[in-house]
Amino acid sequence: MSHHIVDFIDTYFTYPDQTQAVKGITLCISHGESVAIVGANGAGKSSLLKLLTGICLPTKGEIRIGETPVTKKTLPIIRQKIGFTFQDPDDQLFMTTVYDDVAFGPRNYGIGEPEVEKRVMKALETVGAVHLKDRAPYKLSGGEKRAAAIAAVLSMEPDILVMDEPSAALDPRARRRLINLLRSFMHTKIVATHDLDMVLETCDRTIVLKEGKVVCDGSSTTILANEELLEQCGLEKPLALQNCPRCGAKKE
Amino acid sequence: MIIMTNIMESLYNIRILDELAEKRTVIHNIHPLIKLLTTIAYVIITVSFGKYELSNLLPLLFYPIVIITLAEIPVIPILKRILVVLPFIIGIGVFNPLFDPEPMLVFLGLQISGGWVSFLSIIIKGFLTLLAALILISTTGMTWIASALRLLRIPRLFVLQLLLTYRYISVIMEEAGRTWNAYMLRAPGQQGVSFKISGPLAGQLLMRTYDRAQRVYQAMSLRGFIGEYNPGEVKKVTVKDCLFLGGWVAFFSVCRYINLPALIGSVVTGVMT
Description:
The structure holds 2 protein chains of 2 kinds. Chain A is of the alpha/beta class. Chain A is built from 10 helices and 10 strands. In chain A, the strands form 2 sheets. Chain A has a 6-stranded mixed beta sheet, sandwiched between helices. Chain A has a 4-stranded antiparallel beta sheet with strand order 2-1-4-5, covered by helices on one side. In chain A, strand 9 and strand 10 form a beta hairpin. Chain A is globular and about 55 Å long. Chain B folds into 2 domains: 184 residues, no CATH class; 76 residues, no CATH class. In chain B, helix 2 crosses helix 7. Chains A and B meet through helix 2, helix 3 and helix 4 of A and helix 1 and helix 9 of B.
């Protein structure tokens, strides 16, 4: 299953204003892995995701999805394999109804209407949003918008799911639903987030970024328990691993 | 805050057209291309009337009335939109009464000049054509109009421009709403934005909407958008659609070449005598 492997090979990226966002990142994510990319604000998480989806192209180095390098020419193939959800679902939902929005991707790939309908309904069922299909996206609540945005990428049946801050601005119940949803996905998952508790529940592997470089890469449970490392990178131990906030009693 | 509510209200108003287009009525079910062609025919016939032909124009009002009724479109929001454009139409014809003072007809003992008649004809024509365009948008939706334009072989670039400009309006309005909110919350008691701040504020707004539009575009291209929007399965033109187009074009032609009000008037007076 080498075709779902994500490979960053000594990748550099500098924004037009000369901000160096990614400085020599090399990493490999294999098929079916669930990986969290964590780091303080400005550590390079979003830039890394932009590079992966080809929104930005590296100034040096190479990114490969399976056998295909991410270049301008290969973007249509790459983008069919990757489903990317934006930090702000409003950026992603631009059609007049949820149904049309979820159908947008498949229709662009020239899939016939009966198949589009099947895919849309399946994606909406997966995220539990069938009842929203005829609603206008801008009238939905934050959690519903997030669900619709996820359905909109699922309908393209991507191999790799890439999410930027999926739990941001969600209420606890919507966040819980999202976590359960993420756990049920068998895709390769790459999630950039500050929500370390969610990482603990959904991702086996964590990559910590600092100033555009990989500081640490390994199992989530080990990394997220390393208080010193997290502190250095502007992060904090997940609540689930902290001592009792009231009596200070240690976790079992 | 008043301005703020106005912006949000306009935003809501813009979207009302999209929402109306989602209805399912007899008119909504007609093929987008047919509706587009009917509207084009209507607009051409309406503007083709001479500048002094007032009474001939009136039967054309029949078309919007029938469509509005059948499509269950609320009249007030549509009329409000026409009001927004009305000052421009008035601006076009406002000097006609000055340039053309020749008396033309007598109405209730008052002499009316040709200028006034042509001014009124411009307003009526503007009203009718705008009404037809708004009816088309609210019964068809912008995306389907765009697909109909593509069927007419209008270049992809122009259609895309139209579609994205339409989308950009709501993006700019949302950003403007947020900016106003942030400004007004920290500038209590001000009626509007102070002159000094308005420059940077407008600049900010432009940059922000640009960024936002960029992200929306990225989201579109990530989902395979390469410049051709596909709104779903395009229906086939049916006999019913053709009858719709044929019927209306015939009616418009009758309105154009036969002075219906005069004809009806003479028939009625003929019967009376």
